[in-house]
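Note to self: keep these together.
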Amino acid sequence: MIYFLLYLTYDFLNFSKIMYNVKFFLKNLKNKIKKFIVTPFFIFFFYFLFSFSCKAEVYWGKDGFNWKKINPLPERIGPYYATAFDPQNKRVYVIGGYSSNVNHVGSKSVYLGKIQPDNNIIWTKLKDYPKNVLGTFCFTNEGKLYCLGGDDGKSVLSESYAATINADGTIGDWQSYTSLPCPLHFHGGLFYKNKVLIFGGRKKLYYPDDVNDNSRREIYRLDGTNWTQISQLPIAMDAMAIAVYKGKIYIGGGQITQQDGQSSRCHIDKVYFTTISDNGDLGNWVETSFYPNVINYYLDQNCKNWSSKGIKAYHYMAAYNGYLYVFPAASFAVKGPCKLKQSEWLTSTLRSFRAKINTDGSLNDWEIIGPTDCIFDHQNWELNKMATNLYGGFLDQSKFYLIGGMNYAGVTNAAYYINLLKGDFNDDSQITAADIKNLFSSYAQNKSEFELNSDTKINAVDFGTIKLNYTIQ
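Structure:
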């Protein structure tokens, strides 16, 4: 506007030099007004439309946790894919998984995901895996990507493969690597301080009635090029979740395919932990907790409640900042106590929960985190929305990423992340003055979605929470 007034002043001071008539002057004035008023209006109008259309899809919880949708995978990748996260280079690899939810058929697809400064992911398709694969375990180490075991839809595999990682994150040709000691899929895996450990797993493709040792108890460690059995799980299990925190390993959920010496399919709600040394030796297992059952909202106009068995198997577990987190992926559960040839039923849930880790490794009570409303739950019935039945994911500093999977609508390509550091409003995995300023701004504008507990308002409790996280981070 100042520039506009100066421009008009210049015109009037030089009026004696203006050789056009009044009509032309008025026309010129009209054009100036259009230039300084009308054009900015249209710029603002289109900026508003663009900003609205590009607004991120975010699902808020009343406790300060929220899920944010990011770039989807280029193709739908269903359950039982593997992820291998490279934290030094901020990239993740996604290997295999259901190509559809029609048959037990895995995919050969391998994707590289590069994590951007805004926490989004840019995806690139890489060279196919040598086989269709489900239920494998993958990790990165010293410039290579490794995948161990799994199944190809026809048989359970002991074969393992490795590929060299190039400087840009792409991979070279897959080469054979040290095979597992026996064919396994849906086994647990852990890469810890340059040690590779394999836990349990299943040796048969399905659940034949004449096999009473389908799920396994053995724990193996790779010593050089040889596998050594170093311990056993407290019970035989497969499709469980594993996390490590401050020298302790946690194993939760999963399934067991025999009961009292007979074939069955029972899902487990127990959590165990043990110690792990720097050279990969394990202590004794201790039972510490049970997963809770949860309440969901059914796909119904009235948002009807319905009960779920909660998270039991094919889920993901992570430990961060003194808490053990369990993320959605519970798919199949069984009615009542486990018994022979028991029918399964689908009780999928999008709920996530956490428990405080005590100094002795035991867990406090579980609490649900994140959104629990009807709109959030309805994703479970929408194509290419948040899915359960994952068996994969990864933690990047304070942010957990959930990719692909399957919900009631089918296989999905959707991807989301949730920040586990309360008060980190700009998602940079640290509490800074910018976050505190953001909370003050939210308080002034009465934006209750930014509050950090569950009382739906910003008050002293929220400022105390962000101050505490700022102190202990």
